[in-house]
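seq as requested:
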Amino acid sequence: MASYRLELLETASGARRRCEVEARLDGSDRLLTLRPGLEVREFRGYDFEDALQQLRRSIEKDGGLLLCNRFRVDAFTSSMLRQASDGLTCYLVQPGRPVGGRSTPLVACLDPAPAALVVSEEAARRHVEQWQRSFDRPLARLRLRLLRPWTGRRRRLVAPRGPSPRRGRR
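struct tokens:
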């Protein structure tokens, strides 16, 4: 299907190695093949996001990080986006802004990313939780502000039947 040239960062030494990641279909599975030098590792999943997360855990267990967009601190994928892109696209999220619309950038998961933005799975999870909390509170306040005119007072929401009292007819 597609081949991507990326770098592996060894977290202890800071050394970088070139590698190749190949994404392809294999029956109903999605297959990612990682080739750092002569070594070959394969990861299968029901979509590429599933295979990418397996790849990430394997690399992190060995003390490395793959420098790609999906492993950035601000990368997030939703179930709808996973389904639409087969797990090969992710959002770059910003605090206080939910995904959607033109304000949220979409990037290819396996495009190269700067080393300064790539983090471990645990750090990315914490960042996404913090991001989700950042827009939960303002939305709750907005809902309360929108509901406030209807709480505590009686308001007629339906127009009265019959002639209008303002015109003098009853």
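DSSP finds three helices and eight strands in the chain.
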